[in-house]
Amino acid sequence: MVRNMTGTIRILGIDPGLRNTGWGVIGCEGPRLSFLACGVIRADGALPLAERLAHIHERLGEVIAEHAPHEAAVEETFVNKDARATLKLGQARGVAMLAPALAGLEVAEYAPNKVKKSVVGSGHADKRQISMMVSMLLPKARVDSPDAADALAIAICHAHHRGAAMRLAAQ
To answer: Active-site positions?
Structure first.
């Protein structure tokens, strides 16, 4: 596990997806949050699944190397009506958890409703509401995609709940 010797903790939020994996890095110093970076890893849907997963893993490794986060948070997969799609998304989520774990980071997991409730105040907020609140909470953020906004929301959620999440991870 990477330890930070300064007051600011860098948190990587990841919104896993097979075509678009959003990522966002924020700084957290006590209750103060700051925007550091965000983006989207795009995987060609025409590629075989294994190649898309390898691409996501490689790019997440590059993000981690460039931004040196101290902690990571990943959104849990929600189960939808299409079991096959849910299983494939679960594989992307596995890669999203593996990349920071291999870098020595503790990885917290948050349900989509918890992320929405933490950031917007409602567990049933839509993507537009999430983007708007991320912009308000991180005024310097340059977010050009809903996937990146979701990833920043996951990082913000972790900043609010990191003490409890890290205690659970240690058990």
So the answer is: 15, 75, 147
